[in-house]
Specification:
The chain is mainly α. The chain is about 65% helix and about 0% strand. The protein contains 17 helices and no strands. The radius of gyration is 27 Å and the shape is globular. The relative contact order is 0.08.
Amino acid sequence: RKPYGGQILSHDFVEPALLRRAEWEVWFAYDLDGSYEEGPPGLIENAQRDRRWCQGNLQHFMLLFTRGFDGLSRVHLSQGILGYVASPLWLLFMIISSYLLWYQKQTGLSEIAVAPFTPYLRLSATHHALLIFLLGMAVIFLPKVLSLVDLLRDEERRRAFGGVGRAAVSALGETLFSTLHAPVQMLFHTKFVLSTLLGMEVHWGTQQRTASGTAWGAAWRQHWLHTLIGLGWGAFAWWLGGDIFWWFVPVCLGLVLSAPLSVLTSRASLGEALRNAGLLLTSEETSPPPQLARLNARLEACAARKAGDGDPLVEAIRDPYLNALHVEMVRDRDSIGTETNAARATAAAAKVLARGGELSAEEQEALGSRADLMAKLHREYWIAQSHAGTYDPQGHE
């Protein structure tokens, strides 16, 4: 049963696993160009998308032992699961470590006794912890270092990323952001995993892509608990001792700064300033491919148009090209589900024809999902224009 069963929300690795079971070869076509998808514009929107992906990836538990899947397919599915389960495991590790440090201070005991996993090195427990930390840092930083080394070997790609110097500074900046963002994501993912295990279902809806910026009020509503946890945990670590406190600083600082970080990184102005400085560039920005160039030109043309006060629904009704495209896109899914939505769409169309005022968001959504009504309104609009003597073959009044 849902949320563990039902329609699989994250299907990207399930499909190749089924193809491999059917004895097809499946390749990662990493070098294909011409297909692009924007990421969420802020940390909150990114978390909302992760909530859906978390449930989808946890559904893969039931597929791990599917008959006929090969080993690599099971590895891919396991990695997707661990991408979210790792967060509650990390949080549990932090809580247990904090408890052991508190217990050590309260009892006055010396170093915590553990069985060494490298007895031939004759390391203390502290040095073992440092070794694990260094191994973790190597796993995190080695891909970044190798990417920069690979960039040195390709002059064209070096220019596309702003040069080696700017690429290195960008990598450092991205690392700083990731360090601050990681504990916030840890708490988000832990909440998502627990809510899924408790049977709380999520619905896959339209994702927000426009970088409109996160308001301070919305940021504090989402991050107030993160901030309190960061302040409380930091105070507790300081009470445990100065040496211990500095190990907790990266986690606590990211939580304390979660709201400002959410607001700042949602601003398009920050991205534009970094791009102008040649930082965090991608090759698609420095040398746009034809697909993105055409898209940008059309977006600029749409922004310049004033007809219909720029209302997207009005434009989709009025403009012949947009109307044909819109109708074609929704034709195959013309069913709008319930009688309430059908009545709402019909009423909205009547209001448009009668010029009865602005439509609500629900009315716009219901009307926009009906190909027949959108086509009818387009016809009625141009019949009215021809009767009024304002017809223009270029599509302008």
